[in-house]
Amino acid sequence: MHIELTRFACKPGSDELVHEWMTMLREHHDAVLETLDPEHMYVESIFTEAVDGRRFLYWFSIQGPGGSQLEESGHWIDKEHMRYRNQCVDESVPPVNLTRCVAMIPERVLAAMVPVAQDPVPASTQSGAADAESAVAAVL
Q: Which domain holds residue 44?
């Protein structure tokens, strides 16, 4: 399981286009959800911040191993997503991967985070808090 928070600088003057991009993703939420299973993406959220007149986007994600990459997708929403990304993200500013200090995810939530082709671990097969702590430690 990979947990990530990455900050990307936006190109100067791209605020309106960034707003259009995020609106497009919200308006096509169902199409976006279709793309998450092949990526083994369990959680993906985008945040924005303006600092000293500079727009930044923050991607928070929890992704399982073995998923496909966005760039490999043939889905129309991913193509639009990449088009906006290329127009908005300032590639001259390196992205910043923030350092995770701790992740607090209940074992029952971790057990549910599996690719769609797999079945989650049934609650009846879980053997208690000690095993849950071991499972969480192994994932994180």
A: 2-97
Angle formed at CA 87 by CA 2 and CA 27, multiple of 5 degrees: 70
Q: Is 34 helix (H, G, I), strand (E, B) or coil?
A: helix
Task: Say if strands 54-63 and 96-97 run parallel, antiparallel, or are unpaired.
Answer: unpaired
In sequence order, the 6+-apart residues with CB closer than 8 A to the CB of 6 are 58, 59, 95, 96, 97, 98
**Residues 48, 79: one domain?**
yes
Residue 24 lies inside a defined structural domain of this protein: yes
CB 74 within 8 A of CB 7: no
Close Cβ partners of 29 (under 8 Å, ≥ 6 residues apart)? none
- 18 and 80 both lie in a single domain: yes
Residue at token pair 């989650």: 120
Residue 102 lies in a domain: no
Percent above pLDDT 70 for the chain: 81
pTM for the model: 0.77
In a domain, 62, yes or no: yes
Read off φ and ψ for residue 49, nearest 5 degrees: -155, 145
6 lies in the same domain as 44: yes
